[in-house]
Amino acid sequence: MTEKGGTLFLCATPIGNLEDMTFRAVRILREVAVIAAEDTRHTRKLLSHFDIHTPLISYHEHNKVGRGPELVARLLAGEDLAVVSDAGLPGISDPGADLVKLAVEAGIKVSPVPGANAALAGLVCSGIDTEKFFFAGFLPKTTKKRRELLGFLAGLPCTLVFYESPHRLGTMLNELIAALGDRPAATGRELTKKFEEFHRGTLHSLVTQFELTPPRGEFTVIVAGSQSAPEAQGSPDLPDPFDAVMALVEAGMPKKDAIRLVATRQGLSRRDVYQMVLKRDGE
């Protein structure tokens, strides 16, 4: 597909320390026609610090349906736009991902301006295996969907990376213990800030830690993967393939990728899983 119009830049912003900002991000934010921001008040402070005077427009979870097409129209008209989240790389657990989909569908060039990311920052400092990992982000809001997703994640042999808010951290850690068992785990908070803090141990030890010291700040939670070998096909310990696929889709993974992952995990044919999903999804 021939790309047309302007360019949509995904600009990473600091996750804590203002020195996380890259020289390129500052330049791009100065050069684009407009910056789409989750919280314009928050972003305006950042722009002021770096003497950036580009106009801001709000783009967040509650207005993305209407605002997204407006931004795409400006891109198609030839304007270059940047999208930023409140912290880190846009498109990860925020509405920036929806704007990217619209831009790609319209044939618009999308370009990353990499920088700080809380998931990777927490992972590399966790002391837990970084060779293979699965980013789960925030767990689903409903109990049923959380259990379905955790049931699937329980069997993955790779490190698991989550985001969690302080008021839900204790509940979330206990849910992880119930679904995964006690495993090596770590948390990171206030990443790159003055009071950056890591706790490393097991899920049980982290629960004890935060019972003694109430959590504050946004958390990245890293948990070791399953050490058990994959069970034979048809094992009752494995989740139903359809349920496993739907849990991943509910968590934000494209259905095609979810089918591929479930097929690999359960030793099934990708085609068989696809046919199963196609049949049961239409019931």
Would you write up a description of this structure?
- There is one protein chain.
- This protein is an alpha/beta fold.
- It folds into three domains: 7-116, Tetrapyrrole methylase, N-terminal domain (Cobalt-precorrin-4 Transmethylase, domain 1); 119-223, 2-Layer Sandwich (Methyltransferase, Cobalt-precorrin-4 Transmethylase, Domain 2), CATH 3.30.950; 241-281, no CATH class.
- 41% of the residues lie in helices and 17% in strands.
- It has helices spanning 23-31, 40-49, 64-76, 96-105, 118-124, 143-153, 169-180, 203-212, 241-250, 255-266, 270-281; strands at residues 7-11, 34-37, 56-58, 81-84, 109-113, 133-137, 159-164, 184-189, 197-202, 219-223.
- The strands form two sheets. Strands 3-2-4-1-5 form a five-stranded parallel sheet, with helices on both faces.
- Strand 8 and strand 9 (197-202) form a beta hairpin.
- Helix 3 (64-76) crosses helix 4 and helix 9 packs across helix 10.
- The longest helix is centred in the first third of the chain and has 13 residues, at 64-76.
- Residues 229-236 have low confidence and may be disordered.
Rounded radius of gyration (Å): 21 Å
* Poorly predicted ranges: 229-236
Query: What is the strand tally?
Result: 10
Number of domains: 3
Strand neighbour order, sheet with most strands = 3-2-4-1-5
- Approximate shape: globular
Q: How large is the share of residues in beta strands?
A: 15-25%
Question: Helix-strand pattern, N to C?
Answer: EHEHEHEHEHEHEHEEHEHHH
